[in-house]
Design brief:
18% of the residues lie in helices and 34% in strands. The protein is an alpha+beta fold. Strand 2 and strand 3 form a beta hairpin. The chain is globular and about 40 Å long. This is NUDIX domain-containing protein. GO terms for molecular function: hydrolase activity.
Length: 158
C-alpha cells in the first residue's frame, strides 16, 4: 500500500484547514528521541517506515496517529502536535492524497513488543545505513529537516 505512493510535497497548514484537503489518507507520526527519529520495520513491506496507517470509522486524524503509534511501536504519546500534510501521488494512477503528519519528542522509548505489523523499532539519524527504508517517508523526513534548518518550520521540544 505505502510503497505505491511517492512524495510530492509537505504542506505547512493549520490543523483546522484539514477539511480543505481531500481525499485525506491515514495519519503518520514523527517521534524524535535523542536527536534521532523513530522508525519501525514493517513485516508486510519488509522495510523501515514511519509509524502510521489508516483511520478507523469515526476516528479523527490525531486519534488515528496516537493509535497507530501505539499499535506499531508500543509508544503512547497522547500530546502529539500537528505538523502539516504529506502530499503524495499514487504511482499507478497519479491520484493525489494527503496524509496528516503529527510529531512529538520523547526523552526515552517505552518497551517494544513484536506485533503483527512490526518486528523491530529503532532510532535513526537519516544517514546511518539501516537497510531498506520507505522512500516517501525518507523524503518527508529530509524535507522536514531542511525546513528546520532553513527556519521555515519549528520543532517544539517541549
Amino acid at each position: 500500500m505505502r510503497s505505491g505512493s511517492e512524495f510530492v510535497d509537505f504542506l505547512i497548514i493549520d490543523e483546522s484547514e484539514l477539511v480543505s484537503f481531500q481525499p485525506l489518507a491515514g495519519s503518520f507520526v514523527i517521534l524524535r528521541c535523542r536527536v534521532k527519529f523513530l522508525v519501525c520495520f514493517s513485516i508486510k513491506n519488509k522495510k523501515w517506515e514511519l509509524p502510521g496507517g489508516r483511520r478507523k470509522l469515526g476516528e479523527s486524524p490525531k486519534e488515528c496517529a496516537i493509535r497507530e503509534l501505539f499499535e506499531e511501536t508500543g509508544q503512547f504519546v497522547p500530546e502529539l502536535e500537528f505538523a502539516g500534510l504529506l502530499k503524495k501521488r499514487k504511482k499507478r494512477t497519479g491520484k493525489i492524497k494527503y496524509s496528516p503528519i503529527f510529531f512529538a519528542s520523547a526523552k526515552d522509548l517505552m518497551p517494544f513488543n513484536v506485533n503483527k505489523e512490526t518486528s523491530e523499532i529503532r532510532l535513526w539519524n537519516l544517514t546511518e545505513n539501516i537497510g531498506a527504508v520507505n522512500k516517501t517517508d525518507f523524503r518527508l523526513l529530509t524535507c522536514l529537516e531542511k525546513l528546520l534548518l532553513d527556519g521555515k518550520w519549528t520543532w517544539n521540544e517541549g
